[in-house]
Amino acid sequence: MEEIFYYIGIIGSFALAISGALVAMNKRLDPFGVLIVAFVTAVGGGTLRDILIEGRDIFWITDPNYIYFILGGAVFAMVFQDRLEILRVQLLLFDTIGLALFTVIGVQVGLSFDLNYTICIILGVITGAFGGVSRDILVNEIPVIFQKEIYATVSIIGGGFYILLVHFECKDGIYQLLPIALIIVLRLIVVYKEITLPSIYKEDE
Amino acid sequence: MEEIFYYIGIIGSFALAISGALVAMNKRLDPFGVLIVAFVTAVGGGTLRDILIEGRDIFWITDPNYIYFILGGAVFAMVFQDRLEILRVQLLLFDTIGLALFTVIGVQVGLSFDLNYTICIILGVITGAFGGVSRDILVNEIPVIFQKEIYATVSIIGGGFYILLVHFECKDGIYQLLPIALIIVLRLIVVYKEITLPSIYKEDE
Amino acid sequence: MEEIFYYIGIIGSFALAISGALVAMNKRLDPFGVLIVAFVTAVGGGTLRDILIEGRDIFWITDPNYIYFILGGAVFAMVFQDRLEILRVQLLLFDTIGLALFTVIGVQVGLSFDLNYTICIILGVITGAFGGVSRDILVNEIPVIFQKEIYATVSIIGGGFYILLVHFECKDGIYQLLPIALIIVLRLIVVYKEITLPSIYKEDE
Q1: What is the ipTM of this complex?
Q2: Do A32 and C147 touch (CB under 8 A)?
Q3: In this complex, do A122 and B67 lie within 8 Å of one another by their Cβ atoms?
Q4: Do C12 and C59 touch, CB atoms closer than 8 A?
Q5: What is the number of structural domains in chain C?
Q6: Residue C203 lies in a domain
Q7: Is residue A205 one of the residues assigned to a domain?
Q8: Which chains touch A (3 or more CB pairs under 8 A)?
Q9: Closest Cβ–Cβ partner in A54, A119, A145 for B33
Q10: Picking from A104-118, B67-81, B85-99, which range would have the lowest pLDDT averaged per residue?
Q11: Cα separation of A153 and A126, whole Å?
């Protein structure tokens, strides 16, 4: 299980790096700027979580694999820049998978340090969403998360559901997949609805 | 004494959460965004202080009470949105109490780690003022602290005065209240003057 | 060698403080705002590096000398505000020396914690460039580093070259000066070229 999380975590980093790179290219940053924004988007959430927990190493400092996949994601986005409009749906899926997995991983890390349930959910939201907040601060925008509550609300609901499962001792195997699935389904429903419901903000992620 | 600081620290968090929520609502953020900005405003200063001191837990990670009071402050601000204009004076008082207490707490934490006096004062200013700086960065403004020197200057003066008292061994009981009172009085005098002196900036906190 | 690095590191802090103060004054911040921006510009990179490495003290928390030289740099910039236009070339030199030294110091710190080479280079870039990024976020600009790739690219090349030297056991004395010289020469060439090549951005550092 630990190993599966590791691999999907790396896939999540790859996907978030692409998301960061796209936003940076939209701002016409140079290649190196695109790389930095991709990096920050991918590791920002987990980094803040690991900084906040005393005695825990920053995850990417001790494992350079993340760096390589993030670099790959940024280069991928730059090379296939023109085609990514078509890939938009797949991107959203990856981004949502990233949010779902990073939320659950964040909650899990909090639990492994015996922290209070509320704190664990906050760490889940930070892990899932802070990368995107950092990205928006870097490119000098009001963070999207502050203008579309759904993104983080979905993360809170998923994290809370995971805590509930853990509290009632449903810790093994398949149970960890339920909150992940819940976040993905909720987010996709929300995004699908957004297509029909006009937003009061013109921002698009 | 320790206990009194704890309770007033929580009251300070409550007050700063309200201040953060008001700024966020002024930017028309959604409820969740308001909650996040309130949270960051309330814990930002103490969090950065605890990150900078190696071997010290982040204060709210190990004590969820702060979270509950911050949540309460944000909800309070959203519910009584219309009436808060009337409460403006009380708010300023709470905000100032927060600045005063967080400054002294920050200096104290530095002293308890045997740090240099200058560093202790810097930690006091960070604890008192960085929450507001984070708030302004999040909502994409030039931090108010950079446009009204008084806020942080008052914090420096209060922190320096506290160091002076400690240096001359005036550590017990009542002496800790003197710099708190000094900060509160100075800030209120300054704000009262601002009512009569037109500022060159149109910003209002 | 250790001692030489220490003194030049302090000179680097002094120079970066001046650079930060100039940007802040350009934004018409008050004296205290200028001081804070100077401080953040000078210590931002090394602080983030030390936060990211578990078990390492923040360099300026345990050594107040940095603070005094940064304070000196900010006051110097405020006093000689009018003459600094003439000093522009010297400033660029100091800023470049700061970038070069902080990059090498950052890589070195990573190596001393037995970190992966890629991570060491990233820590070098963070140490050299994050101070400027923080400065730009504080004054609400898109960080200059994202609009002029050269700054950080030069840092990466210098850090990579240093790693190469270390890998082939060229660790002693004079060898550490080579990447520093490389970064300085590259940056100055690049800046000299910029005078003739019009940039697509109107930003100037």
Answers
A1: 0.80
A2: no
A3: yes
A4: no
A5: 1
A6: no
A7: no
A8: B, C
A9: A145
A10: B85-99
A11: 12
